[in-house]
TrEMBL record:
Family matches, as CDD domains: ABC_Carb_Solutes_like
Presence of the UniProt keyword ATP-binding in the record: yes
One cellular component term from this protein's GO annotations in UniProt: ATP-binding cassette (ABC) transporter complex, substrate-binding subunit-containing
Record's protein name: ABC transporter ATP-binding protein
Amino acid sequence: MRVSNYFLELRNIKKRYGDKTVLDNISLGLRRGETLSLLGPPGSGKTTLLKIIAGLERQDSGDILMDGKVINDLPPYQRGVAMVFETLALYTHMTVYENIASPLIAAKLPKEVMDKKIREIAKFLKIEHLLERKADKLSGGERQRVALARALVKDAELYLFDEPFINLDAKIRSALRTEFKKLKTTLGKTSIFATPDPIEALALSDYIAVLYNGRILQYGTPIEIYDKPINLWLARYLTGNMLNELYGRVVSQENGVAIELTSPVKRKILVKDYAPNYVDIIKELGVAGTQQEIVITIKPSQSTIESSQECSGLEIEAEIIGYENHGSEILVFARINDTVLKIYSSRDILNRDIIGAKNKICLDLTKAVIYDKRTGRVLGDT
């Protein structure tokens, strides 16, 4: 008999709509109190997977287990699941209080118990002042909070959130993310959060499952996913295409394995001096003498602009062509040949004229992630 320590477990879930495979062999587990994010672009299968877990759709094959018991045949109301949909289906003719009360009325809770729960969740989500307002008089952010309250007021085993912050402005999204994190620490809710936004997934999750074309592309903690994306597409997706990319090929020479950079600079560097963590990986792959083409990715935070400290990484000269003020940091754009590098700098850089100036850029390759240019896979991935 197979024993699992997961509260929720999915085993080999498959789903097709006609000729299109929407979910392909999805397997993952979630322990009580954990938050899992399903991260992926539109059409990757996130919503379908949530609906299957909730019992609103049926998988073609595979099993769903809760507390070790298969629940494939249980109807939605017996699964102990609460779900917040992207569509925010509030009862517009009802007040906020009545909307939040609807699942409690269905559960036939005593009036005084129901009232206490409604007011507690309203206070938590800062919508106490809206309780008597009709739902059709709410702003987008207020509607989102009411939808969250209606789901969370229900005593469920599992909470499913389908892009609950979509179509909201950045300020409201940030505020709701903060409140969502409080739900985990204060209420200990077990939840799955579907989102196309890497920032939300990284901020809210204990674990992330990256979905792409109906498959789990990568699974891990936010740090594992962010620090070493499994392929170049995911690396770009996680950073909003803000990666700095250097192109080159792996070559051999007498004093060790080297990388011959071809763009945006032409230079030969020894791997042991600039990216020592890749020496063994390259040797094990046996590509040192194959001229394998690679892409070296460096995040904007892993680069610096001309400072009093000696550069311990790859130093190149580039022309600053613009910047964005991000408050505590300045995002600087520096051009070298046809490539624009992105570097975060302190606000001190604004104390001098920088536009059009040539500056030395230091790229920290010890934190770089290197990919096979042909396959897009991270070097060392098995």
